[in-house]
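Kindly inspect this chain:
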Amino acid sequence: MPLAPSLEDEVAPHTAAFYRRALRVLAEAEVPFLVGGAFAHACYTGIRRSTKDLDLFIRRDDLERVQALMGAEGWRSELSYPHWLAKVHAGEDFIDLIFNSGNGLTPVDDRWFQDNAEADILGVPVRVANMEDSMLSKAFIMERERYDGADIAHLLQANAERIDWPRLVERFGPHWRVLMAHLSLFGFIYPGERHRIPLWVMQSLLDKMAAEIAQPPTHDPHVCAGTLLSREQYLHDVERLGYIDGRLTPVSTMTPDDVVIWTEAIPARQAEAEPATAAEEDGKPLVPANGWSDSGTLNA
């Protein structure tokens, strides 16, 4: 498929040189990788926006090899979050090496590397993450400070006739309600373009819904799957109301340690921890032992 030009003018020259060299190093070493993030979004939608990083999707098994190649260039790498993300730093610039999602639902596997579009990114021929996989990874990002639903709506608006709809439905699998929510919102956002979503897709999702609600009540496993959408906004449910964290069920690859690390990285919790440390030196803890603020919220 023809792709719109990707970002060029939005990236500072020294940053672009870093990205360009990294892409060439990986391509010359024949390491499988896919470009995602703002660069891929610009290719698919024509929406151009400044970006603070370059997102590369890789298999977890290739991470150490990629880190070695980056190290040979004099760049520093770190495993930021063991369950999904590493970074490569060149001064203040960095590249994200993504091998899963923050909620552990979408590990980068062989399915990501099927029938990928190709594009020139900063003058380097590369493969771009498929729209279906991009939508799958974006669909679950519903934080207070970040919501990627607009990206999905724009991908649909620009490419509805080119999407592999059977593949997209299959990729969401048991999480079809999340897909249904985004497709429903598309019809709200672009009321004159609802017909661009294939009728069979909407009908199949509606049939699933009808069949599900027609079933008699079943045993309640007391799971809160909200943590698959936001690492912060449903902590009240799992920490205070006794719900089972959806990230610790078989649908996710996350471990209890992964959840702890990912939760501690929430900016609000980090901000709470810093004054608490200073206060404890004076013997005057400022933050309750349970880690919550006095208001019972985790405001970002």
